[in-house]
Amino acid sequence: MSTQGSAAQDVGTVVIGAGQAGLVMGYHLQRAGEDFVILEAAPRVGDSWRRRYDSLKLFSLPRYASLPGWRIPLRGFPTRDEMADYLEAYARRFELPVRSGEPVRRVAHDGGRFRVETDTATYLADRVVVSSGAHMRPVVPAFAAQLDPGVRQIHSLDYREPGQLAPGGVLVVGAGNSGTDVALEAAAAGHPTWIAGRHPGQVPFDIDAAPSRAVVPVVMFVFRHVLTRRTPMGRRFMAKADGHGVMLVRNKLADLDEAGVVQIGRIELVVAGRAVSSDDVVPDVSTVVWCTGSRPDHRFLGLPAAFDEDGRPLHDRGVSPVPGLYFLGLDLQYAVASSMIQGVDRDARHLLRRMRASGPARREVPESVPVRAGR
């Protein structure tokens, strides 16, 4: 539906995306008495989690996976659906102004402000916070098109469960957390399975074992406070991790060996329709699952000055060189934890401070906006 000719709605800040980052930003904007709206493309809050693979379980216990103001009412590691339902309940609990089913089609300048267009409405805003997710567009190597047409290809963003795999062998390309999850599921379902790619390292303990929970606070502290852009160690780690993901957390190499998953080198080319690894292995497979990464989808931003020559957002800890534009939830935005649940709260508070320092939005609501206390 076109929005041309409809009256634009005036608002101080538009937050794009109602995932964990957008909800945290909304929580802090509400506490600060700001006038704002959160636009969510999906029909329901939490759908970004519901679209992930069925067996997904978080690496973080409720203490670290909770958003500010309200702890997840669970004891163990939340599952995919539990996290989705928590986000939906969080938005209701704090009465955040989420407008679901409103995908943003374009953001452009309009008389010194931002014009934000969806399928059904237009907003004029002083500020825009882009929190639409760091993993929206699949990344697949160009040579994927050379695979035999009979080989089924699935990207990890589209993978849900082993029933999607064709009978026969399975090649998982990418040895990170999602890749090892898929490989272990494929092997458990009876498929001969290969996993290709550089091993990213692994957390040296079992996070599901009770004794390991004493170590988790140390790991979380390192992710949030040590591996940041302010520390030499953090900058070195990020330079190595950029485009490769972080180390394995729940899965271990020993788990792959025990399951019979064959580990091979990187897939670098396709010969006669078959993938060939850097160590000259040519697995006989009927399915390839590309766990080769993903990137944000910012095609709606009609603001060329917001991006570098490679199309990546330019920002200083989430603050764009375009006045009034902000990003939240990007990979490695400030710390390794920035795209994780435990990292977005600090980044959102930083953005709010930078917003307030640059002057108030034109529209504000009274300071007495109620925010329900968390338990």
Automatic annotation (TrEMBL):
Pfam families the UniProt entry points to: Pyr_redox_3
Alphabetic keyword roster: Monooxygenase, Oxidoreductase
Enzyme Commission code: 1.14.13.-
The name this protein goes by in its record: Flavin-containing monooxygenase
GO molecular function: monooxygenase activity
Membrane-spanning residues: none
Signal peptide: none
Cited SUPFAM superfamilies: FAD/NAD(P)-binding domain, NAD(P)-binding Rossmann-fold domains
Species per Swiss-Prot/TrEMBL record: Mumia xiangluensis
Coiled-coil intervals, chain numbering: none
